[in-house]
């Protein structure tokens, strides 16, 4: 079956759309105007991509963020700018709430007719890796996004321009790249649905032994095709993806529980504690014990 990318419909009379949700990413509202909304089924709970750029703010919730080849924990206040065709997915723990702005200003769009917008080309290219915003930049952008849902027309457009200006002027320490590489997936992907199934399976079973044969049956792919497409869509091999999932789970446990490092490593799906310790130190640049002490302090 041919599966297309997510197709986003911008409301009539608008050049971008503003979304909000208050319980789950599956139940989203498009804010067309103050007091006027359209209910949508959100796609943020599955591995997907779209042509539009996206700026997403989590006002509530926590979980694991997947952006390109990046896997990391997030919590309330998380603010990320995504470039066009960049695969992404938020695996939330419990309820969540937030705002999202989506737009598509490709080459030839009237947006670029204004010479003042030309410096933003570099920002849009960098967003192809995903950019996490923090500090004063995140606070200012978050405030502007909150204003967007209470205005319309030129006022709302002016807020988007101010948002882009703030992000463009942000210091590098408050605008951190997430994915090590950019992605250029085709506008339509034959394999997107199958890869999404694989990712959901890995999230549900990473604490156990994951058999490649089971994943191949689930996706209906041959071993070479799966290996090629999984790396193309996620930026990682299956084993690398699994190890990052397990490491994120272990990091949460280290902060939230008093279980021993051995118990946490085994409970997160690692079979060799020595490998867990080496991987942890390589990716977190400290030992599990040091990580626990630093995060709790």
Structural commentary:
The structure is a single chain. The protein is α+β, with helices and mostly antiparallel strands. It has two domains: 162 residues, Sandwich (Jelly Rolls), CATH 2.60.120.10; 105 residues, Arc Repressor Mutant, subunit A. It has ten helices and eleven strands. Strands 3-2-1-9-4-7-10-11 form an eight-stranded antiparallel β-sheet, with helices on one face. A three-stranded antiparallel β-sheet has the order 6-5-8, covered by helices on one side. A hairpin with a 5-residue loop joins strand 1 and strand 2. It is globular and about 60 Å long.
On the 0 to 100 scale, the average pLDDT is 91
Number of helices: 10
Report the major sheet: 8 strands, antiparallel
Derived from helix and strand composition plus strand pairing, the structural class reads: alpha+beta
CATH architecture assignment name of the largest domain: Sandwich
Instruction: Indicate how many domains the architecture comprises.
Output: 2
How many extended strands?
A: 11
- Tell me the CATH superfamily of the largest domain: Jelly Rolls
Examine the coordinates and then state which fold CATH places here, giving the name of the CATH topology of the largest domain.
Jelly Rolls
Helix content: 40-55%
User: What's the gyration radius in Å?
Assistant: 20 Å
Shape: globular
State which percent range the strand residues make up. 15-25%
Order of helices and strands: EEEEEEEEEHEHHEHHHHHHH
So what's the CATH class of the largest domain?
Answer: Mainly Beta
Q: Reading side by side through the largest sheet, how are the strands ordered?
A: 3-2-1-9-4-7-10-11
> Which residue ranges are poorly predicted, with pLDDT under 50 across at least 5 consecutive positions?
none
What is the end-to-end distance? 51 Å
